[in-house]
Structure prediction request, 192 residues.
Amino acid sequence: MHLKLKLENTAYTKEQLQAKQFLQIALAGRSNVGKSSLINRLAGQKKLAKTSSTPGKTRSINFYLSPEDNFYLVDLPGYGYARCSQQEREKWARLIQDYLQDNPDLRALILLLDSRIPPQPMDLDLARYAASLKVSLLPVLTKADKCTQKQKNQALKRVKELLNDTQTPILFSARTGQGLDNLLTAIKTLLK
Ligand SMILES: Nc1nc2c(ncn2[C@@H]2O[C@H](COP(=O)(O)OP(=O)(O)OP(=O)(O)O)[C@@H](O)[C@H]2O)c(=O)[nH]1
Ligand SMILES: [Mg+2]
Prediction:
């Protein structure tokens, strides 16, 4: 099962954020956590979203339209990339905030967390911010193929403890496709 997705537009500034006619589900997480790879796996296309082993690849907000399910999957720029300037980091943080606030079409935020690393302060800040905006949060633990079963169990437990009010986290691997069907089902449920 895949999701038909088509890149519709890209925003680098608040002014470029246009009103949309469909609901939106956004993907957020630290730089390099695997947001763009997850989009490619969902779409069953290798090069729809640009990925890179160098953090900081996605610098704009990218709107992918699902013409069959009438919604947008929105790829947000990764945060917490240490090697770019403070000014640039602040610019992205502001752009993410501008996008999230006052967005009545935003149905949910999928928060990607590396399954090998405990959630970082910026992840928790974003989770709290989403909660304050009453936006549902779906945690997805990425790069599950790099973990042992013990690490996966630990990651699930940690996330459940830290983000208590949220949905059950999904273990996901863009490399193997683990968790793909669970994620697709969760997205369809969020859109209902
Ligand atoms: N082993 C493994 N590697 C992954 C997985 N998902 C992503 N990667 C790798 O992690 C790196 C970063 O992936 P991206 O999808 O570009 O990450 P991103 O979150 O979009 O990063 P930014 O655009 O910088 O915010 C790439 O080298 C990917 O190949 C996964 O499930 N398993
Ligand atoms: Mg990216």
In short: The CA atoms of residues 133 and 148 lie 35 Å apart. The chain has a mean pLDDT of 92. The helical segments are 35-43, 86-100, 121-132, 149-162, 180-191.
